[in-house]
Every structure is written in structure tokens, then in C-alpha cells.
């Protein structure tokens, strides 16, 4: 029996969230509002998170990592320096959305992310080598997620970029992003995610789908 | 409701934009604390910050000096970055300042720090970030809660203490120790479980979104058996007071702009956007910039969500002129505070 389990299955599907920090909980609230069943796990036992989840993300369930990993989509939102503690085996085969950033000026240098110029999500994907990793949700502030979400077709609706080597996984994440309140924009393969990492215009700004597509195109031209 | 301010020190700028001395910033900070005390402000928090533009790196030294030069104001750190410092030394410095203050005016606020420059500065590894914080907080509490000066503690991030004396003891037995957090839910739960008062640093977004965290804090504390009156909340935010809203906006903006240019250079941000400033400076934004009426109303409005007992503002950044800072302090103490008390009494 999971803690806080709902008596019904939400129709949209199940989202597993690893990490109950500010990013994980903001996306959890949006997903619950959009009709998803949300399961949250951290490195602590589920019971230790029950009160946090009851109050901060009402409607979500506190579960262990294995159960969160066994969801239709999994959001990875733990401090990046802990990425190697994430259980790759539990996430084998899962569509994993990587919302993390390597931002050394605020978080300090992490050796794994300094050795080459791969995007941080490529380094994460090398660890989660049996998962279908999609980079997204990293270029919006946690405090902007709920105020900026809007219904499809809203004027100036904010867009979020997605990058992955897995086309089908990307399509599923695109549908999730749209349901949460943003226009998804395909940036290309996982390596293309560099175009919306810290220090880029996309990371620093707020853009509609048209604007974001132009920015992504410009970064491809200059790359 | 207690009203106060906090500062990381604010290095002044020449007309060409170049920085004046960090020593002058410390002298200005000392003057501001004395002025806040004389004006009737309830609380002043100092540092810890380690940059050329915000040089209040040593809260213990600053507070000891301030304790000798003030009579009524409470003095604390905002916050002490305990993961990269020695809790024994922090406690000794603050207990010393407490004795100088006459007893009962000095507090420690323990935090992780919002940036990581203390790790290379003091030779710590970021990989131990969580362990350092948790264990050193545990040690700081062990010292504070000890019945005598003799302390016994062991951990992995620091040599053990085996019945060693940590002196002086605070005049009233213990120092208030607050836990600082920027809004991570597990930090609120931890503060509640430990029964420590919590200090929220709210630097962007709508402050009332912290309401669930306040509830989490209180319920975590109650579940751990702590009395409701021991579970206190403070809020630190950016703000500035002037006779009119327009003057407040105009006086605070240049420093805000300078700070954001500096941080943008480090973090790859674009030029700061004045619209974002103006948006944050109006309800329900995070900046308490305005006339005494508006600032008082917004503090009391937030109290309806958080039930906090202290609201304190960072009013000097990016080279805020000292005379304008002192006027803002005067207005906060003599104009905002009575308005807050009146509005609270009407609730």
C-alpha cells in the first residue's frame, strides 16, 4: 500500500519524480493539476517524505525509487552532483526527463562535467545507459513553472525545448509538456541540448514556440 | 512582529563605476547597525558573504563590535555558512558577543549559503556538502544544548570532542539558533523536526507561496513534540523604504541593477530588465520597496499566510548611497513599525 494513494487511476498516466526539491515539487503540482497520477521518491524511505508530499504536493504519492521508476514517464530532479547515486538499473527502459543543469558558478565544479564539452544530459545518459533520456524542463526557473503555465493556444504561451536521441520518447515528453501548460519545441538529438544549457539565451529568457524555434535554429547555424 | 534588516556589506562605487574600498563598506555597515539600534529597529543580521561587492565575511567579529556599540537591537548572522566553518569557533565568537551585549541579544542563523565560494576558500570539498552541513549543525546544537561547558561529540567531518570545554557559555544559557532556508521543503521539515526557528530567505517570486512550507514546518515540529511557541518563522527579503513609492523605487534600482549586472557577468545572464524589477517591487512580488504605508501593508498581508514573527530587509546592495540607507532604516523603524503594529492589532 502506498502512502497517500488515490482511490482511482488518473486517466493521463503516471509520472514518477525522483527528487522532492523545488523543481520536482513544482512539476508534481502541475502534473497533478493536469490529471496525471504522480509518485515521488527521494533517497529517503517513502514514509519520511509523506508529510512533505501531503502538504507541498497534495494528491501525489510518496513511494520508493523502484515504484517511481516504474512509471510512464520519470522526471529526474535531484542535485546534479548526486546523479551517480541514481539507480540506473531501476530506470532501465524508462523514459527519463532530465531537468538538471550543470551550473558551476552556483553549484561549484563537478569533475564529470568538466572533462569534455558534452551536454550535462549526455553525461547523465551515459550513466543511465539503458534509459531513454530526454532533456527538458531545465531552462525554466522552478518559481516560474506554475505562473507561466497556460492552456494550449494561449497568446505568447511559453515554450520548452526537448532534446533526445529517442524520437518516440520525445513525443511522449512533448505531450506531457503540452498537458502541463507549455508548447514543446523539438531541439533535435540529445547533444543539441547544449543550446539551452546555462549561459545560453534560451536558458536566460522566456520564449514562445516561434521564438524558441528561431533561437534553436540560430544556435545550430553558429555551432 | 519584529522588524529588521540584514546586510552582506555594500561596497560603494565611484562615479565611473569602479569599487571603493571594502574597509569603507564595513565601516558603513557598523554605522548602519548603530543607527538601526538608535532608531528602534528590532533586529540586524550580518553576512556571511565573501565578495568584493559584499564583503561582510566575518559576522562574529562584526557582531562583537556592534554588541558593544548598541543597547537594544538583536544581532545575528544572516547566515553563518556552517558547512565550511568550525561550529566550535562560531559558537565561541557569538557567545563572546552575547556577553558583550549584556546577554540575550545575540543569535546564530545557520545556513548552507547561496553560493559555493567558501568551499575553495576554506578548503572543503563540494562532494561533502550535505554531510558537512548536517554534521556541523548537529555539533553546533550539541554545544548550545550542553548543560555545562563540557561538550562530547563525534562525527566524520571534524575531529571528535571528548568532554572538552567550549567557553564562554551564553549569559542566558543558550543562544537562539535559527535555520536559514531558501524554500527547499526538506529543510523546512528538518527545522521543524529539530525544533529550531526557521528563517526564510525569499529573494524572488511571490512570498506567499511559502505558506505550504510554513505549514510543513509547524506540522513537522508538532509531530516531533516541539511546543508551538518554539516554532517561530522569520522572513528575510529585499526591500527599501522612502517617503514615497517613487523615491523608494528610484533609490533602490541603481544598486539592484549593479548587482544584477555583476551576477549576470558571472552567470551568463543578459542585462537586467527594469520591468522585472518593477514587477517584483509590487504586490505580490518579493521586493518590499515602497512608502511606509505600502511596506507595512505588504508585511502584514504576508503574515496572514506565514504567521511569521520577524520580517527583515536587505536594503543595501550594488552601492546604495549610505545616506539613503540610513533614511530607509529610520523609516522602517519609526514609520513602518508602528503601522505594522497597528495593522496587526486590527486583525
Automatic annotation (TrEMBL), chain A:
SUPFAM superfamilies: NAD(P)-binding Rossmann-fold domains
Record-level Gene Ontology MF annotations: oxidoreductase activity
InterPro entries assigned to the protein according to its UniProt record, in alphabetical order: NAD(P)-bd_dom_sf, P5C_Rdtase_cat_N, STEAP_metalloreductase
Transmembrane segments: none
Coiled-coil ranges per UniProt: none
Domain (Pyrroline-5-carboxylate reductase catalytic N-terminal): residue spans on this chain: 14-102
Keyword set, alphabetical order: Oxidoreductase
Pfam families hit by this protein: F420_oxidored
PANTHER family: DUDULIN-RELATED
Listed name of the protein: Coenzyme F420-dependent NADP oxidoreductase
Record organism: Paeniglutamicibacter gangotriensis Lz1y
TrEMBL record, chain B:
Record domain Luciferase-like: where: 19-304
Gene3D superfamilies membership: Luciferase-like domain
GO CC aspect terms: cytosol
Name of the molecule in the record: Luciferase-like protein
Alphabetized GO MF terms: monooxygenase activity; oxidoreductase activity, acting on paired donors, with incorporation or reduction of molecular oxygen
Keywords: Monooxygenase, Oxidoreductase
High-level lineage: Bacteria, Bacillati, Actinomycetota, Actinomycetes, Micrococcales
Superkingdom of origin organism: Bacteria
UniProt entry tagged with the keyword Cell division: no
Matching PANTHER family: BLR5498 PROTEIN, LUCIFERASE-LIKE MONOOXYGENASE
